Amino acid sequence: MSTVGSIMNLTSSALDLINSTNPVHRIAHNIVGWLCREGIGESDFQYCIDRCRGLAYPNETGLQIREDIAKSQDKAARAGGLQLVTSGAIGRWMAFTQEHAYMVTTIATVTKFHDLDFATTLLCEMAMTDVGRPYNELSHSVSYTVDYARLQGVVSKIADSIYLNVVNAGHALGNLPEELQSLHVHVLPPQFVAFITLQISRYSKDMMLLCDFFYADLALWLLVHFQGVITLSVAGEQLFRKQSRCGNQQLKIVVRKACDGATCETPEQIEMCDDTFYDSIQLCDMLRGFHFIAERVLPSTKITNIQRQSLYSVMFPGATDLLKYDELSDIKKLAHRLVAWILDLQLNPDRPGWFKVELSESIHENQMRFSDVFCRWPGILNPKVLQKQKLKPLIFEPPEVGEVEVVNSTCDLYDTFVSCFPSLRDLMDQLSSRCKCRECRTEGSINNSKAGCLRWLALSQLLMLVGVAIADGFGVDDISGAFKPSDFTLLRNLISTVLYHLVNGTINWEGWFVIASSIALGFVPSNQLGQDTKGHLVAVQHGSLVVTAQWLDLSRRLRKNHCCALEVIEGQLSGAQRNTMFVRTKLNTQGGSSQKRELFQTFNLVDNNFLEEVSREDLCECSLVYCLTGSTEPGLVNLVILVSSGSSERILNPTDVLHGVLRSRYISKVECNHRPARDVGAKGETKKDTKGIENGDNSSDEWEDVDENEHDDAMTVWTFEQLMARWGPFRPGEILFTKCLDTELKLNVALGLGRCQAVIRETKCCMACALESLDPERGKSPCVISFQIDDKSCIVTTKL
After folding, report:
1. Which residues fall in a compositionally biased region of kind Basic and acidic residues (predicted)?
2. Which of 164, 182, 192, 686 is the most exposed place for a label (fewest CB within 10 A)?
């Protein structure tokens, strides 16, 4: 009976966080599950909910975040073919409550200037402060009480959920009005912010706040919570006035003097505790003159923005404090040159998920380059910036023979990378002469340097800029502010490992994907998830954001620039039980059904019926199912893509499809030296071509230039069901053709199962041109794919 009562009480507490329009049962289920995962007791949760109830209420500006969340949840989200579900995190659902929505809006504002610890302390101070007593009569040792510790344990979990699932997902209230953005920003301790905000929220009379400095954190909180008319003046000039939709109460914020930042930017001056840096803050009733607070406070200019920011605003921790301005400028210029050098590298697909890099200076006109596989040009290479700086090309010197090509640690990683670029070596030598650490004084290895070393910081900042440029090329629009100091170090090591492989001539696609997804999500995996031969990492969920490889959706046309492209979608993976989940692909199933080869249609290459047969549309149905299965590794799930057609079912690895796309080339020329002997119509009928005869053209037939001895075997024409059942390893030299495939899905399936190079031929291009495009030097398994742009049909021809 007591157990049932506890469950009912817990459910009652969960229902307090929802309104009548929300799916009650689902939300209650999600909250109960969250409590179990976080290890929060029912009584502690109930205590927190009661203590934090109705301390403040957002105005129409603050409630805008609720509308933004609702719009994101109304979307039927799919990411890379994966069906996503609406996030049921408690941090998101609290935005829809009346009594606790202020917790969401508070974190969405103060994280513009403070870290999450400040936000948690502020919420706890608001819950524990007695607003019925003047500030100077309050006991400020509440953080050491038992009740405070009990409250903080739950509030910290709620704050984490709000930040991870709301603020980090892009829903924030962190922008000051345009009229106030030019003011020099100061911030207050959480105790002052809590007391002032509570007094203003509870008092119904007109009030005035007098201070010497502009406190941005307090002002922003009031702008999204105060119900009435709020005005702000600086040095006798009114800069801002706002009237909310409801309430006539007036709040005047009077900043006595304009601060230009010249006297308060130096931390050493503030730490001197000179009386000139103290501010006497007064909050009083405008009519009665009653003072709620009149205290001296030491203002701070230390800002910690953990909301989403523009990509290239990121700085490695400590770089701006220890490196000079001209040194930071040199690092940025070097990053420009390094990224430009990377994008100009020539690539060759090696095996699924891997590339070989051509590091020599030889240039091949038709060779694929790194810039071809990026979905967009990184902003760090803005033409206006490059033209203004007039940067020289980066000189590359290959690593010495005998160095290890693959590393599992950072044993010699940084020294090897730096040794490949003379400009980078010069920068390291310049910083070494100014640094006082032991490794720099003894001309030691960079690998042995530690945080605080100038070389270590400079290299870290360079790697961060390169990593952000990689994310930019993948299509990431902004960077998460959720990085902790340890995350920056992990990301630095990941970027350096990827570049180490690069200078040794190899590229692992998964490493580049992890860099881009980490910058988008604000989470860096500490272990090498998916770094094995059993599959490839293709999607990551962190909080209420999911990042997937764009080429994971096999129902649409895949192109080379989809290789380095990702989608960032708001939602969660279906069935996810953790805040962070990784999705890895599974291997293909092997073909080889019991169908007899004699049942397949075969033709000679110059047979008149050949073009007619391969142009017939294959109208069989093809279905695709995405399924996430469990794994023995925590937080890791396997993606199984099952393709079905007729009686055939195959597990398809999307990495193989991408590999086929990268190994393919497009042929779209209409005019060529071959005279078509027959023109195949849209429905497969053949028409005699007499144009060349009428014009006196003595050119040969379409097949005259084709070596019949090279293709003297019988040509097999496959239906889609047959290739689903049989395609896999074939004997070298065998040429395979399919009928006209009518969907992008069938084309992708053929590419993935064929596991070979492809020449994609538009139907107006003759078959002889397609066969001439088969380049045996590029591999032993070339293939030809023909398609019709109008109806998106295609013909797949494969030579193994």
Report:
1. 678-694
2. 182
Percent of the chain whose pLDDT exceeds 70: 72
Q: Which of 281, 307, 333 is the last residue of a domain?
A: 307
DSSP per residue, 250-291 = EEEEEESS---STTTS-HHHHHTT-GGG-EEEEEEETTT--E
HSE-up of residue 434 (Cα within 13 Å, Cβ side): 14
pLDDT tens readout for residues 644-667 = 988 888 888 899 889 888 887 777
- At residue 760, the 3 state secondary structure works out as strand
**Quick check: 270 pLDDT over 70?**
no
In degrees and rounded to multiples of 5, residue 381 shows phi and psi of -105, 35
169 plus 179 within the same structural domain? no
> Six-digit token pair at 291?
């003072």
Residue 349: per-residue pLDDT? 87
Given 122, 149, 173, the domain boundary residue is 173
Overall number of domains in the chain: 4
Least confident among 187-201, 256-270, 530-544, 744-758: 256-270
Copy the structure tokens of residue 601.
Answer: 């249609």
Q: What is the pLDDT of residues 303-346, one digit of tens each?
A: 899 999 999 998 999 998 899 999 999 999 999 999 999 999 99
3-state class percentages of the chain: helix first, strand second, coil last, to nearest 5: 40, 20, 40
Q: Are residues 12 and 144 in the same domain?
A: yes
Q: Say yes or no: 64 and 191 in one domain.
A: no
Contact (CB, 8 A) for 641 and 654:
yes
Q: Between 42-51 and 2-15, two packed helices, what is the crossing angle to 10 degrees?
A: 30
Question: Which of the four pLDDT bands, split at 50, 70 and 90, describes residue 570?
Answer: very high
Residue 778, Ramachandran bin (φ over 0: left; ψ between -120 and 50: alpha; else beta): alpha
Inter-residue long-range contacts of 591-598, CB under 8 Å, 24+ positions, other chains counted: 591/650, 591/724, 591/725, 591/726, 591/727, 591/728, 591/753, 592/725, 592/726, 592/728, 593/648, 593/725, 593/726, 595/722, 595/725, 595/726, 597/716
3-class SS of residue 196:
helix
> What are the φ/ψ torsions at residue 746 (nearest 5 degrees)?
-65, -40
Segment (H or E) for 103: helix 101-110
Residues 340 and 459 in one domain: yes
Q: Between vectors from CA 250 to CA 245 and to CA 255, what angle results, nearest 5°?
A: 120
Tokens 């069901």 -> residue:
721
CA 800 to CA 256: how far, in whole Å? 81
Cα end-to-end distance, the chain, whole Å: 71
Instruction: Indicate whether 566 belongs to any domain.
Output: no
pTM value?
A: 0.86
pLDDT of residue 737: 72
Distance of CA 631 to CAs 339, 637, 650, 732, Å?
37, 5, 21, 37
Full domain range(s) for residue 285: 175-307
Determine, yes or no, domain membership for 540: no
Burial of 480 from C-beta contacts in 10 A (0-12 / 13-18 / 19+) = buried
* 661 and 688 part of one domain: yes
Rounded to an integer, the average pLDDT of 523-527 is 83
Q: Cβ(13)–Cβ(51) under 8 Å?
A: no
The angle subtended at Cα 486 by Cα 483 and Cα 487, nearest 5°, is 40
Rounded to whole angstroms, the maximal C-alpha distance in the chain is 108
80 in a domain, yes or no? yes
Please, how many CA atoms are within 13 Å of residue 782, restricted to the half-sphere of its CB?
14
d(CA 770, CA 5): 75
At residue 360, the pLDDT reads 76
Show Cβ contacts of residue 95 under 8 Å, excluding neighbours closer than 6 positions.
65, 66, 69, 101, 104, 105, 166
> What HEC string does 114-177 produce?
CCHHHHHHHHHHHHHCCCCCCHHHCCCCHHHCHHHHHHHHHHHHHHHHHHHHHHCCCCCCCCCC
Task: Kindly state whether residue 545 falls inside one of the protein's structural domains.
Answer: no
What's the CA gap between 652 and 591, in Å, rounded? 11
| Mean pLDDT confidence for 7-21 | 52
